[in-house]
Specification:
Layout (H helix, E strand, L loop, with lengths): L21 H27 L10 H23 L8 H22 L18 H39 L5 H19 L4 H12 L16 H61 L7
Helix pairs in contact: 1-3, 2-3, 2-7, 3-4, 4-7, 5-6, 5-7, 6-7
Length: about 290
C-alpha cells in the first residue's frame, strides 16, 4: 500500500504580501509626472513641426533623457552587487529601477516617434543598423524591460507560492522543513531498530520514496504492530512534508533561474544602447565625430 499524503490546514490561512512602501509611490509618481510632461511636449512637436523626428528637438532631447534614465535604472545592479554602502534600502532602489526603466521605454518610443513600431516597419535587416543601431537599441530596451516585468511577476508568484505552502504545512519554509524531515527519519530509524526484516524493508522503501501503489503492508509479529503503526503515521507525515519541500525548492529554482537570464539580456541590451547613445552624442549633439 502506498503512503497516503495529506496536508494539514491551519485554522487561519495566511498569504504573504509585501507592503507597498513610500518609495514605491514616490518613484511611480515621479515617473508619471516625467512621462506626462514629455508626452505633452511630444504632442506640441507633432502639431507644430512638419517632420518631427529623432534628429530634431524636442524628440532628440527625448533620446538623451531616455539614455540618462537607462543609466540611472542600471545603477540598481551597481547598488545591489558592488556598492552596497550606498544610502537607501535595496528594495527602494528596485522600485526606482522598475518605474524609471518603464519610463525610459515610453520616452524612447516618443524619441523615435514610434518608427518601426507602429509605422514604417522594417523591410530588411539594414534598418536595425541605421542611425548607429537606433532601432536595435529601442528593441533591446523594450525586450529588456519586458524581461524585467516577467521576472518581477515570477518573483511575486513564486514568493506567494512559498509563503502559502509555508503557512499550510504546519512547519514553515524549506530550512525548517529539512530539519523536521530529518527528525522524522531519525524517529523511524529508531522505531525500526531491532525489528523484523519486513518492518525494516517497508520503512527503508518509504524513506527512499520507492513505495508504490502495489506495495503491501508487511506481515509482522503482534509485538511490532504498535511501533509499526506509529512509524507508518510518521512516514505519512514525512511524505507530506517532502512534497511541501519539493514545491518550495521548485519555486526557488524558478526565481533563481530567471535572474541570470535577465542579467544576460541586460548586459547585451546595455551594450547596444550605450553604443547608440554615445555615438549619437558624439555626432549629433557634441559634433566631435563627423556623421557618416
Amino acid at each position: 500500500m502506498a503512503l497516503a499524503t495529506k496536508s494539514s490546514t491551519p485554522a487561519q490561512r495566511r498569504i504573504w504580501k509585501a507592503p507597498t512602501t513610500k518609495p514605491w509611490w514616490i518613484w511611480l509618481a515621479a515617473s508619471l509626472l516625467l512621462n506626462g510632461g514629455v508626452f505633452a511636449l511630444y504632442l506640441v512637436a507633432i502639431k507644430t513641426q512638419p517632420f518631427p523626428g529623432p534628429f530634431n528637438d524636442p524628440l532628440r532631447s527625448f533620446g538623451i533623457l531616455a539614455f540618462v534614465l537607462v543609466l540611472a535604472s542600471a545603477s540598481y545592479s551597481l547598488r545591489r552587487r558592488f556598492a552596497r554602502g550606498l544610502p537607501g534600502m535595496a528594495r527602494n532602489w528596485l522600485w526606482m529601477h522598475t518605474w524609471i526603466g518603464i519610463g525610459a521605454v515610453l520616452i524612447a518610443l516618443l524619441h523615435e516617434n514610434y518608427t518601426h513600431i507602429l509605422h514604417d516597419y522594417c523591410q530588411n535587416a539594414s534598418c536595425f543598423t541605421q542611425a548607429y543601431w537606433g532601432t536595435s537599441a529601442l528593441l533591446a530596451l523594450i525586450f529588456l524591460v519586458l524581461s524585467g516585468i516577467v521576472g518581477r511577476l515570477l518573483d511575486t508568484w513564486q514568493a506567494h507560492t512559498i509563503a502559502r505552502d509555508a503557512s499550510m504545512n504546519g512547519i514553515g519554509i524549506a530550512r525548517a522543513l529539512d530539519e523536521r524531515i530529518l527528525e522524522l527519519e531519525y524517529t523511524v530509524e529508531r522505531l525500526s531498530a531491532g525489528k523484523s526484516e519486513q518492518f525494516k524493508a517497508f520503512c527503508l522503501q518509504a524513506l527512499d520514496g520507492s513505495s508504490s501503489s502495489s506495495s503491501r503492508m508487511p506481515t509482522l509479529e503482534p509485538g511490532e504492530q504498535v511501533d509499526f503503526q506509529r512509524a507508518y503515521e510518521i512516514l505519512v507525515a514525512r511524505a507530506s512534508l517532502a512534497q511541501s519541500l519539493h514545491k518550495q525548492k521548485r519555486a526557488r529554482l524558478i526565481i533563481s533561474a530567471w535572474r541570470p537570464v535577465h542579467m544576460i539580456l541586460a548586459c547585451l541590451a546595455l551594450l547596444i544602447i550605450l553604443f547608440h547613445g554615445v555615438m549619437e552624442l558624439l555626432t549629433n549633439v557634441l559634433h566631435i565625430i563627423t556623421p557618416l
